Amino acid sequence: MAVVEPSAAARGSSPRTQAAADGEGTAVPRHVAVVMDGNGRWARKRMMPRFFGHKAGVDTLVRTVDTFAARGVEYLTVFAFSSENWKRPSEEVSGLMSLVLVAVAKYLSKLAGDGVRIRIIGDRSQVSDKLRRAWEDAESRTAHNTRITLSVAFNYGGRWDVVQACRQALAQRLAPEQLDEAWLGRHMALAFAPDPDLFIRTGGEMRISNFLLWQAAYAELFFTDCLWPDFGAAEIDAALATYARRDRRFGAIKP
Ligand code: IPE
Ligand code: IPE
Ligand code: MG
Q1: Nearest residue CA, atom 12 of ligand 1?
Q2: What is the number of domains present in the chain?
Q3: CA angle 42, 44, 50 (to 5 degrees)
Q4: Angle at 141 (CA atoms; ends 137, 142), nearest 5 degrees
């Protein structure tokens, strides 16, 4: 009997997702989600301010996208700024906001030329007009690219995502019986992507920190002590090799 993961099935899973669900061709995850953690500690180890770590983290992200794409990953979703990161000192928050503008100016042409489609997920209502425009520019300039989709979660929280989807249901006056997993899945921030197959967290912590709570329901988890700025091809290959050995059952029993 075919094993089908519920939300992918509800959205109409692609042949490749279905093959993965059947236990065939699981070698490469279609969608990888990454909590890019450890920038501050990386900087501290070098007696540098935390911002230095965040800056190095941006360079690591750009290198990483290319490596994941080269390995055949179609979707890469990275956690850049959480709904809870506003609790940090205001200098760090404003440093991160300006770093985004610098990063877009520095790397957008390269990413666009490399075939990367950029999407931003998260609550844009709380960021500056300048930042919103930079996001829009990044999305529109890369909209037709097909090599890999890079979704940057910025001012994102898994709980926010569920609430914003429910608010859409209320705004559309959906009847209770019309609201199901498929409907919510189509209104969540990552509706354009299959659910993540592999969820990586760098920096040694073993928690989700309010990342893709809904979408990661059946993701394989991989935690590494490697601090985000040090993350590279060797760690990616280790994560992919571990993933390829996992037995995904989605609640069923394999014959
Ligand atoms: C992750 O690195 C980046 C963001 C949350 C913006 P941290 O800044 O959390 O680094 P550590 O965990 O303090 O080392
Ligand atoms: C998670 O890292 C958020 C991002 C990487 C953007 P945090 O450093 O904010 O998570 P906690 O506070 O250790 O759970
Ligand atoms: Mg951290």
Answers
A1: 38
A2: 1
A3: 80
A4: 120
> Among 35, 36, 41, 228, which is best to mutate for testing ligand 1, by the most ligand atoms less than 8 A from CB?
41
* Six token digits for residue 165: 């989807």
Residue 200: what are its φ and ψ, rounded to 5°?
-110, 140
Are 239 and 68 a contacting pair, CB within 8 Å?
no
- Give residue ranges with CB within 6 A of ligand 1: 36-41, 81, 85, 96, 203
**What's the CATH number where 35 sits?**
3.40.1180.10
Q: Is residue 172 part of a domain?
A: no
pLDDT tens for the chain, residues 1 to 255: 334 344 443 443 443 444 444 444 458 999 999 999 999 999 999 999 999 999 999 999 999 999 999 999 999 999 999 999 999 999 999 999 999 999 999 999 999 999 999 999 999 999 999 999 999 999 999 999 999 999 999 999 999 999 999 999 999 999 999 999 999 999 999 999 999 999 999 999 999 999 999 999 999 999 999 999 999 999 999 999 999 999 999 999 987
Q: Residue 136: give the domain boundaries.
A: 15-156+194-198+219-245
Residue 203: inside a domain: no
Residue 119 lies in a domain: yes
* Residue 22 within a domain: yes
